Amino acid sequence: RLVRQPSDLPFALAAAGREAQAAFGDPRVYLEKVIEAARHIEIQILADTQGNVIHLGERECSIQRRHQKLIEEAPSVAVDAELRQRMGEVATRAARAAGYVNAGTIEFLLDSTGKFYFLEMNTRLQVEHPVTEMVTGVDIVKEQLAIASGRRMRYRQEDISPKGWAIECRITAEDPYNGFLPSAGSITMLQEPTGPGVRVESGIYEGTEVTFHYDPMIAKLVVHAESRPAAVARLRRALDDFAVLGLTTNLPLLQALAAHPAYASGDTHTGFLGEHVLEVAPPAAPPSTVLIAAALYELQVA
Hints:
Blueprint: H1 9-24, E1 39-47, E2 53-65, E3 68-74, H2 81-98, E4 102-110, E5 116-122, H3 129-136, H4 140-148, E6 165-172, E7 174-175, E8 181-182, E9 185-186, E10 189-191, E11 198-202, E12 209-210, E13 217-225, H5 228-241, E14 243-245, H6 251-259, H7 261-265, H8 272-275, H9 288-301
Antiparallel strand pairs: 1-2, 1-4, 2-3, 3-6, 4-5, 6-13, 7-8, 9-12, 10-14, 11-13
Helix pairs in contact: 5-6
């Protein structure tokens, strides 16, 4: 509940308390400072059973809708080497204090002055972990399994040095221009992008029946290049080459976001989508690659 005027506080407290009581059986609430135009920055950590804790740098996850991430990248344009070191030290110190063992992510809000604020910790592997893998060369899943078996980590902090830039998009079965309503149906045609620096993780194929019973994410598109401009260009090409027919997806929105000048410049924050909603309208027509793919599919089955 956002409160901008003191007079709004009693109502907001009462409403939040009712929601807390209904959801958790406890009406207590807490207050947080509002960070305007904040960036969502998270630090990936690894901690083994021998007390070794390292961080793998940051991920920027500021492009969101309803607090759910849409586009993630590593590193962040807002984080320099000095800030990365400070945030990493805070994250690893917190993990040590808690006696944490596992892969995990400590998340922060970063304001325009470079101050950062603890948000939460995810004690698991996250959807966006591939971008960190792409820039560090560390297989986080493999390390997580090794840690769980009691082995000592193979990496030291000085071994971690990000190279290049990686961006991930979450492909979801939703209608982004109709309140993000979930979409269901059978996938009649699927074309996934390929090529150097392109990675697709999915569990779908032609004939897959997508239902309302599960999370709407059906695939992840990850690209990697030597610089952010090159990664953004590769992302645009890969999104244009990605085609899913048979149900509605958020691909048109992702294409519009990737092509937006503010995104290209790295001028993002957690309110980016709401601020630019009128500028990321659906394209007048599908990309030519999608039309060609659809035509080839029709000829194939005819």
